[in-house]
Write a structure and sequence with these properties.
By secondary structure, the chain is of the alpha/beta class. Helices cover about 55% and strands about 10% of the residues.
């Protein structure tokens, strides 16, 4: 093969990898209607910006592919295993390096950012290069739209830059210059920028209050209630691992070193030993919310019992009756909170002005039927869950407290939650179509608890 042929082959390979990563990332974010926080533009606008920043300093196709994919595990239903199968272990590793490992269960924002910073410090120069591009684009966006939060972001950015100095030197220099320029524009003295200052979160609406949802459901159900036994074998892994997985009907087998499970293999690659990631492990007393958070990044979650990894949970285990009971109970309690809150904010039925005539007529028909059956209820009690949320999000404090960027997004998400509730009630599959809503609920619950 001559030099020209080699060049053409290399170029084709690069195009294929980068093009596939681009399509995969855009489709993954589009499926959940992911948009930028301030501009509401499709999220791929951010991805394109990050890729352009990276492409200006390198033609490494794996780095560029990782730039497209850098948020898919953190924000969508994709897992690291998905990326490894689609794009290879190197690209999956780069995405892993720039994906946050913390969860709300780790504590307040300052604590979580410290954990993520420590994780990022261990990244390769290529991973840090992707992160520098991400920081740069986010800094521009936040500082131009939200000066108040920009002060917090710049504080955290300064801490991250301390561990990103061995990323691409051009991008590191530009990120430092942008941080200084942005801080100056906000009249924020750089000497007072110290990393990991927390944000005090207010909860003025008292909706989704942890006291009302966590006391029973979050303490009663634990990871050990749904975990299956993780079969294991001594190092080195062998072809018998596949037989063991088939026999036990599990997608992984633990690998013992000196009698202790320290790694694992999977069905697709039974001879390749894999190490456990910290965000892939939960304790046996971890809440279902913590388990679900782990499963947002990985297809498999491992459970530590009595000091050793001996349990396994997959996304399919979310179909377990205990998890369905837990989810349905939380949704029910949330719905129960809406009625007194509406009555307090819109007394004497003034909330009726916020609903359409057709929705009110439907509730009125249901009210008449229930009264005919001698059931004690009110017109408000006959509204659908989505109707009640439609009323509540008219209050700006509640809209903000729920973390919605607009009423339109709030309405769409609430319809999705109603779909989840209906699928739970009718014993339908809740993993294939509802996992995003389940993950959103888990994130919210853990945020409230911590």
């Amino acid at each position: 093969m001559n030099i020209t042929q080699t060049s053409n082959t290399s170029s084709s390979k690069k195009y294929n990898l980068v093009a596939r990563a681009r399509i995969y990332a855009i489709e993954a974010h589009s499926r959940i209607n992911h948009r930028r926080k301030y501009s509401f533009e499709p999220y791929d606008v951010h991805l394109k910006d990050v890729v352009e920043i990276v492409s200006a300093v390198t033609d490494d196709e794996e780095i560029i592919a990782a730039a497209w994919l850098h948020d898919v595990v953190e924000d969508t239903s994709a897992t690291f295993l998905n990326l490894e199968q689609e794009f290879g272990s190197s690209v999956a590793q780069l995405v892993s390096e720039v994906t946050d490992v913390s969860s709300p269960a780790n504590g307040n924002r300052a604590t979580r950012k410290a954990l993520d910073r420590a994780h990022l410090a261990k990244a390769s120069w290529r991973g840090k290069t992707v992160k520098l591009a991400d920081l740069t684009d986010n800094c521009r966006d936040i500082c131009s739209h939200d000066p108040e939060f920009a002060k917090v972001y710049l504080t955290e950015m300064s801490g991250l830059l301390e561990v990103l100095s061995d990323g691409h030197p051009v991008l590191f220099t530009k990120a430092m210059e942008l941080m200084h320029k942005s801080a100056e524009a906000l009249s924020l003295p750089l000497e007072v920028i110290t990393a990991f200052q927390g944000i005090k979160r207010t909860n003025q609406s008292e909706f989704f209050h942890p006291d009302r949802t966590s006391n029973l459901f979050l303490k009663t159900f634990m990871a050990r209630d749904i975990a299956r036994i993780l079969p294991s074998m001594d190092f080195p892994p062998s072809g018998t691992a596949t037989d063991l997985m088939d026999k036990q009907k599990v997608p992984a087998v633990g690998i013992r070193h000196d009698g202790i499970v320290r790694a694992y293999v999977i069905q697709a690659d039974p001879l390749q030993e894999r190490t456990f990631r910290s965000d892939q492990l939960v304790d046996e007393e971890s809440s279902f919310a913590e388990v679900i958070l782990a499963l947002t990044k990985h297809k498999i979650c491992f459970v530590r019992m009595l000091g050793t990894v001996s349990g396994i949970i997959t996304r399919d285990d979310i179909q377990h009756p205990f998890v369905r009971m837990w989810l349905f109970g939380i949704i029910t309690m949330l719905e129960m909170q809406t009625t007194p809150l509406i009555e307090r904010l819109w007394p004497e039925g003034t909330w009726t002005a916020l609903l359409s005539k057709s929705r009110l007529e439907k509730a009125q028909t249901l009210l008449e039927e229930r009264l005919r059956r001698n059931q004690q209820t009110t017109l408000l009690g006959c509204l659908q869950f989505s109707d009640k949320i439609q009323i509540l999000i008219q209050n700006k404090e509640i809209l903000n407290d729920l973390g919605f960027q607009s009423k339109r997004i709030a309405k769409r998400v609430c319809k999705d939650f109603e779909s989840l509730r209906n699928n739970l009630a009718h014993a339908q599959d809740i993993v294939t179509h509802d996992f995003t809503q389940i993950a959103r609920m888990a994130i919210r619950i853990e945020s409230e608890r911590h």
